[in-house]
Amino acid sequence: MPKRILQGTVVSDKSDKTVVVKVERRFTHPVMKKTVRMSKNYKAHDEANVHKVGDIVFIQESRPISKDKCWVVVTEAQAEAQA
């Protein structure tokens, strides 16, 4: 099964080797027939601490790294190669 890749914006980089990425999705509400925006925050592993607040990054599913961190920041080249 392929690993999911999501695109989002870094909202926090305070933790060591970890960034919090906000991923926004848009869909049509089944009853109201209106476009709805929902967002979710994911903790992702950033080994080199290179990403800062406001950066747009791709994150990929991985094995659990800690209690609530099971995503890894990947480069754009890696994301496009797997898509």
UniProtKB/TrEMBL annotation:
Specify the domain of life of the species encoding this protein: Bacteria
PROSITE patterns assigned: RIBOSOMAL_S17
Q: Which InterPro entries match?
A: NA-bd_OB-fold (IPR012340), Ribosomal_uS17 (IPR000266), Ribosomal_uS17_bact/chlr (IPR019984), Ribosomal_uS17_CS (IPR019979)
Gene Ontology annotations for the cellular component aspect, listed alphabetically: ribosome
Q: Which UniProt keywords apply?
A: Ribonucleoprotein, Ribosomal protein, RNA-binding, rRNA-binding
Subunit-level organization: Part of the 30S ribosomal subunit.
The name this protein goes by in its record? Small ribosomal subunit protein uS17
- What organism is listed for this UniProt entry? Aquibium pacificus
